[in-house]
Write a structure and sequence with these properties.
This protein has 436 residues and is an alpha/beta fold. The protein has 15 helices and 24 strands. Bound molecules: ligand EPZ.
């Protein structure tokens, strides 16, 4: 058997093994201790794509080793960039970009691959990006990205499931007003506009900390951006960008997940290396529901402070309550006294954790975009199946407080966005084991 075939079989075998991994969790132990926050996955993805905008080397630090990042690194290599991973530092150099394309095989595993659309058009004048299929939580179209790029002068047509974009004479500054707030849509357009000829104004821009993080990297590379983090962003195009060395922000969703883990198990958890100012809506609501949460400049401490009380929650764009913490918060509300109305305003199908929580004993009724959670319901360990990244976190949180053992299946969903979750939970005293 040739070496290449053997290597491919080895990789496939590992991949298959990963697919079959499960977590065995024995619930009932209050989590106690300290946990370190990794870099933000949803910041790492756009800043990796931004490295396509320059022929100079870019060093990115605090990049979490999660599956979606590995997918983006594979895509950048496919485009022609050199990508060297050294722990949580990734060094990229797109000296040339001979292959400005994001193929279906890669995009179907991670829709955030569409983040290379803007950079590829800006750098090379063309891009061929597979349209992302939907995913578990919704259709996930990129029509807003495409419409905005056309405002910058790109000629775009769609065929065979691909978006083809051309800007033979380069992009020119334009006025973009998003019909609805889109995080990666805002990031895509910022990355297209920084090399466009003239000024671009983006209205109804996303205000997420990850958008601000991309803008701060681009500014380090020589871009001229004002207003990142507000709803109106102004960009003066420049002829070229240089390299940079940039450490990304901590992962607010991971940090929020650990806050909820401490609260749901009635423990005492110190989350280090985080940015509490990125989580104020979550902290505020958890305090209202009865948790004690202290904050420092880069840490948060959650402790039990009597019984939990139900509170209503509605997901909103930043600075509102993050949709990526909705599933985790719903698990918490199963342990709170009273009725909690949870409303999901961002995605059309983001309650898939609910029926699995019900199988563990929760009392949840879903009506369209609203879920009604009645607590307190004792949870009992059960075999449960992950459907998407954040639903997985919700089931794991429930298993930590459930009586007995839970078997959480298809945890490759967890590996997409949490770096060493089982190791970090075990470090807080949880009884959790990964089995193939
Ligand atoms: C980003 O996704 C995040 N992913 C998501 O995190 C997060 O849930 C989401 O923002 C909302 O905060 C990354 O940053 C890589 P959107 P994104 O465009 O940009 C609709 C996780 O768990 N829409 O802000 O894809 C869209 O369908 C992931 O880490 C269009 O209709 O989200 C959704 O209903 C999940 N047309 C709404 O807008 C478009 O062209 C907001 O989506 C774009 C979006």
């Amino acid at each position: 058997m040739g070496a290449a075939v053997a290597a491919r079989r080895a990789v496939t075998a590992v991949a298959a093994e990963k697919i079959m991994d499960k977590l065995l969790i024995r619930g009932g132990k209050p989590l106690e201790g300290e946990v370190e926050t990794s870099g933000a996955k949803n910041s790492a993805l756009p800043v990796l794509a931004a490295s396509l905008l320059t022929s100079e080397p870019v060093a990115l630090r605090r990049i979490p080793r999660v599956r979606d990042i590995a997918t983006m690194e594979k895509l950048l290599r496919y485009n022609g960039a050199s990508v060297d991973v050294d722990g949580d530092t990734v060094r990229i150099q797109a000296a040339t970009v001979p292959n400005p394309e994001a193929p279906y095989e890669i995009v179907k595993t991670m829709r955030a691959s569409s983040l290379v659309l803007g950079p590829l058009v800006a750098r090379t004048g063309r891009a061929r990006v597979s349209m992302p299929g939907g995913c578990a939580i919704g259709a996930r179209p990129i029509n807003l990205h495409v419409a905005a790029l056309e405002k910058l002068g790109a000629k775009i047509f769609q065929e065979h499931g691909y978006v083809e974009a051309r800007a033979d004479n380069g992009l020119r500054g334009g006025h973009v007003k998003f019909d609805r707030i889109t995080v990666t849509g805002t990031e895509d357009i910022i990355m297209a506009a920084v090399l466009a000829d003239g000024e671009t104004v983006i209205e109804n821009a996303a205000r997420e900390p990850e958008v601000v993080d991309v803008a701060s990297l681009l500014t380090r590379m020589g871009a001229r951006i004002d207003g990142a983090g507000t709803s109106t962003i102004r960009i003066q195009g420049v002829p070229r960008l240089g390299g940079a060395d940039h450490a990304i922000i901590p992962d607010r969703i991971e940090a929020g997940t650990f806050l909820i883990a401490g609260a749901i198990t009635g423990g005492d958890v110190l989350v280090r290396g985080c940015a509490p100012e990125h989580l104020m809506a979550t902290i505020e609501l958890m305090r209202q529901s009865g948790s004690s949460i202290e904050c420092g400049p880069d840490w948060m401490r959650v402790r039990k402070n009597g019984k939990l009380r139900s509170v209503d929650m509605k997901t909103m764009e930043f600075p509102g309550f993050a949709t990526d913490l909705q599933a985790q918060f719903m698990a918490l509300m199963t342990q709170a006294e009273g009725i909690s109305f949870v409303e999901e305003t961002i995605f059309e199908n983001r309650f898939m954790h609910a029926p699995e929580l019900v199988r563990m004993g929760a009392n949840i009724r879903v009506e369209g975009r609203k879920a009604i959670v009645a607590g307190v319901t004792p949870l009992s360990g059960a075999p449960v199946t992950c459907s998407d990244l954040r639903a997985s976190a919700s089931l794991i949180l429930a298993a930590l407080v459930a009586e007995g053992e839970s078997v959480v299946d298809r945890i490759y969903h967890v590996d997409r966005g949490y770096e060493g979750l089982e190791r970090k939970l075990a470090g807080l005293g949880a009884s959790v084991n990964r089995v193939a």
